[in-house]
Amino acid sequence: NQVRRDAITAVAAAVPPAYSFDPGEEPGAIFGENVFSLSVMQKRLPKGVYRSVLATIEKSVALDPAVADAVASAMKDWALEKGATHYAHVFYPLTGLTAEKHDSFLDPVGDGTAFASFSGKTLIQGEPDASSFPNGGLRNTFEARGYTGWDVMSPAYVLENPNGNTLCIPTIFISMTGDALDHKTPVLRSQQAMSTQARRVLELFGHTDPDNVVAYCGPEQEYFLVDRHFYDARPDLINAGRTLFGAKPPKGQEFDDHYFGAIPERVLAFMCDTERELFKLGIPAKTRHNEVAPGQFEVAPMFERANEASDHQQLTMTTFRAVAKKHGMECLFHEKPFDGVNGSGKHVNFSIGNSELGSLLVPGDTPHDNAQFLVFCAAVIRMVHLHGGLLRASVASASNDHRLGANEAPPAIISIFLGDQLADVFDQVAKGGATHSKEKGTLIIGVDTLPDLTKDAGDRNRTSPFAFTGNRFEFRAPGSNQTVAAPMVVLNTIMAEALDHCATVLETAVGAGTDFNKAVQQLLAEIVADHGAVIFNGNGYSDEWPVEAEQRGLKNLRTTVDAVPELITAEAVELFGRYGVFSEREMHSRYEISLEQYILSVTVEANLTLEMGRTTVLPAAVRYQTELATNASALKEAGLEPDLGDLQVVSGLVADLRSGLAQLVEAVGHEHDDDALVTATAIRDGVLPAMAAVRTAADALEGVVADDLWSLPTYQEMLYLL
Ligand code: ADP
Ligand code: MG
């Protein structure tokens, strides 16, 4: 087939673009070059103004509007020096994408000239027309205004473009009524709620007036790279981000020869280029390597405060897409671009702490520190047990449904892996308090006599969705395409609840005269007794686990449709309301939007399946069928007995394909119910199986139809040719 042959020829000839790295350059010289960072502010702002901004960042003091003009003016000068012509308020609508509205710095003065201006007011607040962003019923279109507000905690930066640079200002996005329309607002709110409760616990442990506690997030991003020539020949990749057709290649990932192998040269050039761009933006990219599936890779930055990490994560994805294009490739973030090989996740490494105390989820040097550590760990156990459903809901999407529970990613059951050492400690706590660490002798529990805990991360359990890894927990269920903000909001909020519980129990006990050590011990024992069911150190991919999980009362929310209703249970609404993270309206809007997005994305895929099935797969199959039939009659005419086996196979599959398409037409044609959950359920149960039927027939045809009639690039080509 000409299309595929041309693509293969072009791929073979691909040369990475010239790379701008100067070997003499000092490492780190470009880091943060395009960021209006604290150090830039310190140099450029009057002392008082700088101190005021710093107080906002470090101590969460509200931004003094009086300083905004000074900051704006310094920011503008800096940006103009960096070649910026425009500024943009960057926000994070509920599509999960990044949105930006650009405005020119130039203001006409009235005499035919223009003047670069940028006031404090423009810095602090923007007013994009927001009517086409999802709002889940929060905003009437006649009142389509949305407001963006500068998030002082996340630094502004200049984004380079050959046609002129842009000053980007990370902002929250809210409606006129103050409802959150974005992912950033709740991160900030939940962050604050968590900090308040964490500080209460810290005070009980004798820290007077501790600094704000923040959530840290280290997101590991998996992705696929595909050459653009193949990508352009696959309407499914272009429109849905994943292949809707494609037979398994003869060689999949079973050899495990790609994982951590040498990085292909073309990919390495891409990685170097992306890192350079990320460094300029102050994004601390740290590790890069091949992933399990062929054509799959990973990048992970150093962890940062959740708010910044989340903005940086979005920017990382944008950068990867842009740089891939420059290198003649396409970067795929879909959770399951190719059936039959591993999909992509985005592990969210989560901890809480501050610069004064470090991570609060790391065992300390003294028994006292370890008691504190155990309380924070116990809070995590409680939160995951009570609110696993919310965690599942925070990573629910049509695309992530292909991954969770598919024996390559953690199951949809949210459990917690503690590792041997910690599991053992909690085990002992549960057994009445007498405790000893695994390798040491018996000790009587009490804050002063807690065992030494080694800081060894211990063994790894790759099958757990929520694993303790030595100084943090790794939430492995988020999808590669998702924003980390959604899980971070849930993590912060449920952490706030669990810490609130711990603080209250301890305060009450101490107030009633109980010895603090004893109160801690009782609290830990109570949490293990009430919530120990969520601890699971076994194989999460096994067939036995779902059965056992059910006996333990853990939820198994297999699909988005099962998971999203968790957002609007009375309990959830009360919880998010109590900590000021979401109002009931906001929860409902998020619920609606999640379902809308699900319906939209499956419907797009279904229509594409129909189109490609009819216009690409069926014609190829029918042509081949005709070829075989013509051959058979020619043989007959020549007096030979034709073997009709192939023709029968192809005809059978063509019939299957036709009936699959008919089934899909009917499923897609179902009228949508007013209730989004009803529609989403119907789509899951009707459209998805029909799509699968079409695909089964089409993929089987790919294996028998003459190769020169097949125009869709094959898995083999897309996964192995880079
Ligand atoms: P692995 O592949 O072993 O899970 P990686 O090095 O790929 O580890 O990624 C680990 C991620 O966890 C990095 O982003 C790292 O910065 C982050 N991380 C490390 N310590 C913490 C912590 N205390 N809190 C949050 N994230 C952390
Ligand atoms: Mg990793």
From TrEMBL:
SUPFAM superfamilies linked to this entry: Glutamine synthetase/guanido kinase (SSF55931)
Ranges where the GS beta-grasp domain occurs: 85-178
Matches recorded under Pfam families: Gln-synt_C (PF00120), Gln-synt_C-ter (PF18318), GSIII_N (PF12437)
GS catalytic domain: residues covered: 194-617
Domain of life: Bacteria
InterPro entries: Gln-synt_C, Gln_synt_N, Gln_synth/guanido_kin_cat_dom, Gln_synth_cat_dom, Gln_synth_gly_rich_site, GS_Type-3, GSIII_N
Family: Belongs to the glutamine synthetase family.
Identification of the protein by name: Glutamine synthetase III
